[in-house]
Design a protein that fits this description.
- Keywords: DNA-binding, Transcription, Transcription regulation.
- By secondary structure, the chain is an alpha+beta fold.
- It folds into 2 domains: 54 residues, Arc Repressor Mutant, subunit A (Orthogonal Bundle); 74 residues, 2-Layer Sandwich (Alpha-Beta Plaits), CATH 3.30.70.920.
- It has 5 helices and 6 strands.
- The strands form 2 sheets. Strands 3-4-2-5 form a 4-stranded antiparallel sheet, covered by helices on one side.
- Strand 3 and strand 4 form a beta hairpin.
- The longest helix is centred in the N-terminal third of the chain and has 13 residues.
- The chain is elongated and about 55 Å long.
Length: 163
């Protein structure tokens, strides 16, 4: 367990906004000298709080125009079927997100594909996955909000896993 203070929160918010921020820029933004700032970032990386740094690409410029949400219902929700489905989905690059759900469907997928033909191929392959009973798709007409930054309290918080 570690308490993150407002400086740690400032560092995390700055890195979420732009992971390419240099340590010198980051230190200046949170009013620290570079060495203590660097040490704080390293400590948060070692805690697993900072998992990775990524580059966000523009899907439209890359020709990925269809953003589709797919509800998948399995024939039986048993451990083996869940594991098999999840392993199959993990191999599909079109699947941007996959959640095990409560409610009517067992899984919710967010899939990015270039066009309707690519979606057809994806869905036909999905229907041949053992254990899949039902698939329902919904097209996103417009992305109203998309963010990757997690909401962090300004005053700090305690993080870690309890034993």
């Amino acid at each position: 367990m570690k308490k993150l203070d407002r400086i740690d929160i400032g560092i995390l918010n700055a890195l979420q906004a732009d992971a390419r921020t240099t340590n010198a820029e980051l230190a200046k933004a949170v009013h620290l000298s570079p060495t203590p700032c660097y040490n704080r970032v390293k400590a948060m990386e070692e805690m697993g709080l900072i998992r990775q740094q990524v580059t966000l690409l523009d899907p439209d410029l890359l020709g990925l125009h269809l953003n589709v949400f797919i509800h998948v219902t399995l024939e039986r929700q048993v451990q083996g079927a869940l594991q098999h489905f999840e392993a199959t989905i993990a191999e599909r690059p079109e699947v941007m997100e996959c959640y095990l759900m409560t409610g009517d469907a067992d899984y919710l997928l967010r899939v990015l594909v270039p066009d309707i033909k690519a979606l057809e191929v994806f869905i036909l392959n999905l229907t041949t996955t053992p254990g899949v009973a039902n698939i329902r798709s919904s097209f996103a007409l417009k992305q109203v909000r998309y963010k990757t930054a997690l909401p962090l309290p300004e005053g700090g918080l305690v993080v870690g896993r309890e034993a």
